[in-house]
Design brief:
37% helix, single chain, alpha+beta, 3 domains, Peptidase M23, 9 helices, membrane, 334 residues, 13 strands, binds zinc ion, M23ase_b-sheet_dom
């Protein structure tokens, strides 16, 4: 029945008693569907949280790689890139190194063996090594060396267990005992991502008293513009005049005002650049070489800012990365 016809029927044909019954029925129908939508929504949110939670937990140290290069995007089959990135997130092992291993070992799943030596699957594990380090990367309850998620997470687990975060090349040597193998994998990894910086090696850009982050990296409601925007760095509140330090050795690439960033300094470190924004003053000049820990300026509130804080960004291949992965947060004991 046409809804409009129903309304007409409701208004004209039905007796007062029938109208009342119909109203009650419509009311229950509305309450019922509202409740159903609420529980469906709640279930969806819980499911998404569980998935994100299961992927996000892990070890936060180790060598990580920056954004994929154009070569990486053309060379790595698109469906596998998230596998390597998620493995880096969980185990702190460079996604580019994991992708390079997958290329060398199985050409991204095209030759999964068994090899003459008996190695099997996407990352070519020997059965004994597989038993020792196997992970259920896709969470289906099965440990399958032919499944890319399981194989890549297991390789990341093995490299992490063998001290990848301290000495990536030594951990790789333990993966496959050959010098040529280590050199080949590392050469491909560097083509996939030009930067491989051990996180925790960048100095904290402010005195260790100021370690709280008022606004993290990612989408957020802009404090001044009051609209959702991508925040390409982290905000660390500190009183105006607090000294700001270079996080690594580098060369000053920018030393003046830049739009919403206000007065800012950009340092070029070769493998990445760092940005220090909303400064009240700048104490270095473009072209100058600076050492890690050297003062580059003072905290302020210039540009689009709602109070004194340092906005700090890291860019790899001109793309922003999460600075929290690249910096050592001070313990506060010094
Ligand atoms: Zn900011």
């Amino acid at each position: 029945m046409d809804p409009r016809a129903m309304v007409i029927a409701f208004k004209t044909v039905a007796s007062p008693k029938e109208r009342k019954n119909l109203s009650v029925k419509i009311k229950y129908l509305l309450i019922g569907s509202a409740a159903l939508f609420f529980f469906l929504g709640l279930a969806t949110v819980m499911l998404i949280t569980a998935v994100i939670g299961s992927l996000g937990v892990g070890i936060t140290s180790g060598f990580r790689s920056g954004a994929p290069t154009a070569f990486a995007v053309s060379d790595i089959p698109a469906q596998y890139l998230p596998v390597f990135l998620k493995a880096q997130e969980k185990y702190g092992v460079s996604w580019a190194v994991l992708a390079a291993i997958a290329k060398v070992e199985s050409s991204f799943g095209l030759n999964m063996g068994p090899s003459e030596a008996g190695a099997v699957g996407f990352m070519q594990f020997m059965p004994g090594t597989w038993e020792k380090y196997k992970q259920d990367g896709n969470g289906d309850g099965v440990y399958d060396p032919y499944n890319p998620w399981d194989a890549v997470f297991s390789a990341a687990n093995m490299l992490h267990s063998n001290g990848f975060e301290k000495d990536p090349e030594k951990a790789l040597y333990l993966y496959n005992h050959a010098g040529w193998y280590v050199r080949k994998v590392m050469a491909i990894a560097f083509q996939y991502s030009s930067a491989m910086i051990p996180p925790g090696q960048g100095m904290w850009p402010l005195p260790s008293r100021y370690i709280s982050i008022s606004s993290g990296y990612g989408m957020r409601l802009h404090p001044v513009l009051k609209e959702y925007r991508f925040h390409d760095g982290i905000d660390i509140p500190a009183p105006a005049g607090t000294p700001v330090f270079a996080v690594q050795d580098g060369r000053v690439a920018w030393d003046r005002s830049k739009g919403g960033y206000g007065l800012c300094v950009v340092l070029n470190h070769g493998s990445c650049t760092t940005l220090y924004a909303h400064l009240s003053e700048i104490t270095v000049r473009a072209g100058q070489e600076v050492k890690a820990g050297e003062v580059v300026g003072s905290v302020g509130s210039t540009g689009l800012s709602d109070g004194p804080h340092l906005h700090f960004s890291v860019y790899v291949n001109s793309r922003p990365c999460n600075p929290e992965e690249w910096l050592a947060v001070p313990s506060g004991n010094y």
